[in-house]
Structure formats: C-alpha cells, structure tokens
Amino acid sequence: MYFYSHKGYKIITGLDYQKALKLVNEVLQESYQIQHEYKNNKNCLVSKIKTGDFENIVLKIPRSRNSRIWERFLTLFRESDAFRIFGSLETVNNLGLNAPKPLLAAQKRSCGFVTDSFFLYDFIDGDTAGKDNINKVLEALQKLHSHGYIRSDPQLSNFLIKDNTVYFIDMRLKKPFVFKKIKFLMNLAKFVQAHNETGALLNAKITNSFIYKLSYFIQKIKTKKRNYRIKIKSILKGN
Length: 239
Ligand SMILES: Nc1ncnc2c1ncn2[C@@H]1O[C@H](COP(=O)(O)OP(=O)(O)OP(=O)(O)O)[C@@H](O)[C@H]1O
Ligand SMILES: [Mg+2]
Known about the structure:
By secondary structure, the protein is α+β, with helices and mostly antiparallel strands. It folds into 2 domains: 2-122, Phosphorylase Kinase, domain 1 (2-Layer Sandwich), CATH 3.30.200; 127-236, Transferase(Phosphotransferase), domain 1 (Orthogonal Bundle), CATH 1.10.510. It is built from 8 helices and 12 strands. Helix 6 (180-194) crosses helix 8. The N and C termini lie far apart (43 Å). Bound molecules: adenosine-5'-triphosphate (ATP) and magnesium ion. Residues 157-158, 170 line the site of magnesium ion.
C-alpha cells in the first residue's frame, strides 16, 4: 500500500501515484458516471460508478460520520471511517475470507479533525444476503471470530452473496484483547438479535452456555441503550 497527499487529502491505495491522483480528482469533481445508486441521503452515499480507468467500483462517502461533531472529535485519535473500513476490507481478504477489494481511501483533516473522507472498492456482482443465506453468513461470521476479530453491524444487509460465497461489506473490524470470549459471543448475539431465527441454527452447546446467555443479555442492553439514544436525539431534533 502507498500513502500520497493531494489537495489536502491523505490517500491510501495500492495504485500508482498518477492513477490515484486521477481517481481522487474524478471523485472530487464528481466527473464519474453513476451506474447505480444504492444510497444517497444525508448519512451516506453508496454508488456503483465508472471512471476513466475503472468500472465496477463502488464509491462510499460516509457523510454523517464526516460531519458529526463527536465523530470528528474522535478522529483526533484515530483515522477516518473511510480509512478504517478500507483497512478492514483488506484484513478480511488477508484472513482468507471474502470482501470486496479496497481500491483507495482518502481523508482530509482540518486542525487535526477529519472533515471529509471517502473510499472506493470493488463492486460485487451478487445479492444482499437474505434469510436463505443465514447459515452461510453465520458460518462466515464465526470464522471471522475464530481469527480473533469482531465486526461492526453484523446483520444480513451487510453481507453479499455471490456464487454461493459470503462477502463482508460495511464493517469496521476490531480485535478484542480482553474479555475476548464475551465479545465474540456478543457479536454473535447481535446478529441473532437482528434475525431471531438464527438462534435455532446455533449449536445448542453455545446457546445453552452461561457465557452466551450473559453475552446475549449484555448485547441486548447495549442495543436498547443505543436505540433510546437515537430516539432521544430525534425527539430533540424535532423529527
Ligand atoms: N461492493 C459492493 N458490491 C455490491 N453492492 C454493494 C457493495 N457495497 C455496497 N453495496 C450495496 O449497497 C448497499 C448499502 O451499502 P452499505 O451497507 O455499505 O451502506 P449502508 O448500510 O447504507 O451504510 P451505513 O450503515 O454505513 O450508513 C448494500 O446493502 C449493498 O446492496
Ligand atoms: Mg450496511
């Protein structure tokens, strides 16, 4: 991987300098063709695009993370969402699991805070995982845990299926160093809580264990707390 600087952006990519700069300019000038728009709202942009040198790539701009005050503050101590997802896609691939190949990520800092970021990665010509794929997704998620990682937002819509293979998308990976077992099980429980039918597919040895029940409970409280926070915020905003 290489790091470049251009127009105030720090860039990470496997591309050579000229190609990387051309791609960044195309994104900044919006001089690309949109082939499909998956999401385009105040929170985020996810589009399949075609540029001079690349087709079948996806551009993601995490708009709300780029602009939220708290998220900006945290970037004093860590990289942008774009850089972190870029790294996570790479790690998943390096572990021998599947994720779209990351192409380039760029972030701009002002007074130490990230104020803009985006990233580009391969398009996967498959389908979003559905109920029929729960078993396969569960298997992939547990494989990730066996490599020592948990992923953010484990739910079916954040996995793609192509040729019967599971691809991880939309994630930041974390490698827990303490309370590992609980953290892996909480990640599993989060997936189960998003898709209730999954519980029945898990090995009874896991679901009957005290540590799983405890992890499930802690995760439930965490999710409830988060949902209340979102509700309160939206009430305060008058939505
Ligand atoms: N590399 C890709 N190949 C094919 N489709 C993709 C790819 N990346 C994203 N998509 C499609 O776009 C949808 C939205 O993408 P993603 O999950 O990254 O965004 P999001 O959930 O809206 O974002 P966030 O949770 O960060 O606000 C996915 O469910 C999938 O259908
Ligand atoms: Mg998603």
